[in-house]
Amino acid sequence: MIVFPNAKINIGLNIVEKRPDGYHNIESCFYPVGWSDALEITVADHFDFQSDGIAIPGNNADNLCVKAYNMLAADYALPPVQMHLLKAVPIGAGLGGGSSDAAFAIKALDQQFNLKISFEKQLDYARRLGSDCAFFILNKPAYCFEKGDRFEEIDLKLQGKWIVMVNPGIHISTIEAYAGINPQPGRSDLRNVLQQPVSKWKDQVKNDFEATLFLKYPLLQKIKDDLYESGAAYAAMSGSGSTLYGIFEKEKDLEKHFSKFKVWQGFLS
């Protein structure tokens, strides 16, 4: 079986408060995009995990796909498999690539071996692996809250709009991103703001990480400015960065314009 774990963008990211457990409560819209990895799972004589494409740091045992398999194998009679991941979505880029890989591994194993795991239980498994893993079980536009692991579907229709995503290769850790953050509760409900036309989002839909990270990495501000100058109706950083994106009303090929960076562009669905 081959599946294609896709990335997501954050449309707005408000950091509401710090939790007693050390995490932060957020509110954001997660929106799936077409930038994808490829994950193949086949029955084998013994378990094995291999990856190609972008180098994945750490040991295989720490990979979320491996953890997903081991978690399900503890509860179900899974045979040994070989997992082969072709990594194309940048790592540590605010796109949820590793989380998506894990969620798609859960869904693929369930389907391939007819485990009949309920949707709610798949969500529970995904939440054990990471805050935003659960979103990729749903994999539809969603308003996400608490740690980003709770969500409700949102009626946000961006189908047919064009997105350009630019990753400058700056790795920003979660610890670094949160270092300059002062949580701000009590702002306008993001769900209501997003019902306005995309052209109205610029001054109202914010990513709280931008303020401090743009000062530290001026290139991020420049890329955002370039996206607007190229005609984007809305541009922002996704997650804690460093990927930025622009949403355009019409197709706009900017691959050459951002030729120094990793670029993915295509229509939203």
From TrEMBL:
Domain GHMP kinase C-terminal intervals: 209-256
The pathway this protein participates in, as annotated, is:
Isoprenoid biosynthesis; isopentenyl diphosphate biosynthesis via DXP pathway; isopentenyl diphosphate from 1-deoxy-D-xylulose 5-phosphate: step 3/6
Recite the UniProt keywords alphabetically: ATP-binding, Isoprene biosynthesis, Kinase, Nucleotide-binding, Transferase
Which catalytic reaction applies to this protein? Answer: 4-CDP-2-C-methyl-D-erythritol + ATP = 4-CDP-2-C-methyl-D-erythritol 2-phosphate + ADP + H(+)
Transmembrane segment boundaries: none
- Catalytic activity, EC: 2.7.1.148
InterPro entries per the UniProt record, alphabetical: GHMP_kinase_C_dom (IPR013750), GHMP_kinase_C_sf (IPR036554), GHMP_kinase_N_dom (IPR006204), IspE (IPR004424), Ribosomal_Su5_D2-typ_SF (IPR020568), Ribsml_uS5_D2-typ_fold_subgr (IPR014721)
Q: Which terms under GO biological process does the entry name?
A: isopentenyl diphosphate biosynthetic process, methylerythritol 4-phosphate pathway; terpenoid biosynthetic process
Q: Which residues form the GHMP kinase N-terminal domain?
A: 63-138
Q: Which SUPFAM superfamilies match?
A: GHMP Kinase, C-terminal domain, Ribosomal protein S5 domain 2-like
Instruction: Tell me which Gene3D superfamilies the record gives.
Output: 3.30.230.10, GHMP kinase, C-terminal domain
Provide the GO MF annotations for this entry: 4-(cytidine 5'-diphospho)-2-C-methyl-D-erythritol kinase activity; ATP binding
Q: Which residues form the active site?
A: 8, 132
What HAMAP family does the entry give?
IspE
- Family assignment? Belongs to the GHMP kinase family. IspE subfamily.
User: What protein is this chain from?
Assistant: 4-diphosphocytidyl-2-C-methyl-D-erythritol kinase
Q: Which source organism?
A: Dyadobacter flavalbus
Q: What is the lineage of its organism?
A: Bacteria, Pseudomonadati, Bacteroidota, Cytophagia, Cytophagales
Q: Which gene encodes it?
A: ispE
